[in-house]
């Protein structure tokens, strides 16, 4: 089981910093690779190694989920993490809003996206989350 390391906050900050202005790219810097990388930074374990290097397009992503996952991103995450109510998501937990993954971060979610012409990591207010689902990234252990 994956548990956050005692210095998870420092590890997560170091992971996020170089991604702030990195544009979205399927299979390299998309919602799945971003969330999996964050979990790896916090726990030392990559929760999605079977998907690394397996797709480069939206269609490829859907095919990879069917071939290597549980059919959908949501179902695949259910096999790897404990699902929790989105209202209970704490900083560092995984959140899905409108089908895209990000990290709970206080009153926001950090996700890969764009704001105007700027691409990279964006903050989405909890009030703007659409049909949110969340998964706990376990503390200590």
From TrEMBL:
Residues 4-129 form the DUF6950 domain. It comes from the Bacteria. It holds the Pfam family DUF6950. InterPro entries: DUF6950. This is DUF6950 domain-containing protein. The lineage of its organism: Bacteria, Pseudomonadati, Pseudomonadota, Alphaproteobacteria, Sphingomonadales.
